[in-house]
Structure formats: C-alpha cells, structure tokens
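FORM 7B: Structural annotation worksheet

SECTION A. Query
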Amino acid sequence: MTKIDGNIIQNNLRTDVLNKASKVLDNKNSIEFSSEIHNALKEVADTQTKANQLTKDFELGKETDLTKVVMQQQVANIAFQLTLNVRNKVLSSYRDIMNMPV
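SECTION B. Predicted structure
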C-alpha cells in the first residue's frame, strides 16, 4: 500500500496549473478561449467522475485504500471550488462592465 501525502498532491496540482497557464500564455495566438474553457471544465468533470468511481469501488469492496478515496474526493472538491470561484469572478467582472457608464 502506498502512502499518499497531501503536500505532494497539492504541489503537483499547483505545478500542473502553472504549466498549463504558461502554455496558454506562450501560445495565446493559436488557442481559442472557448476550447480552453471546455477542456478545463471537462477535466473537472473527469476528476469528479473518477472520485465517484473510486467511492463506489470502495463501497463494493473493490478498493481497499480509504486514504486514496478520500484524497481523490478532496481533489475533486478543490477543482470544483476553483471552477465555482472563477465563474463567480467572471460574473462579477461582467456585471461591473455592464454597469459602467458610457
């Protein structure tokens, strides 16, 4: 059984996000914004699906590592919270722009 360290997972997530952000900034002319948003939302959905599958496997006795299940649920929760916060910031910015006097 492998031990899962939360700091390692957090550092991996941070590194992954920074790498993707730098990739987007480097190729800003060749990437469509809508496709990047679609890909990001798909990754969040895939993370949640994986967490749900691991939970189901644990309940059925196929998965025995509870730590792995809980960590995957936390990763899915963090991804969802990040998505929700980004959505809220975008909506807030949109409202601010719409309320600007012309």
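SECTION C. Observations
The mean pLDDT is 84. The longest helix spans residues 66-98.

SECTION D. Sign-off
Analyst initials: ____
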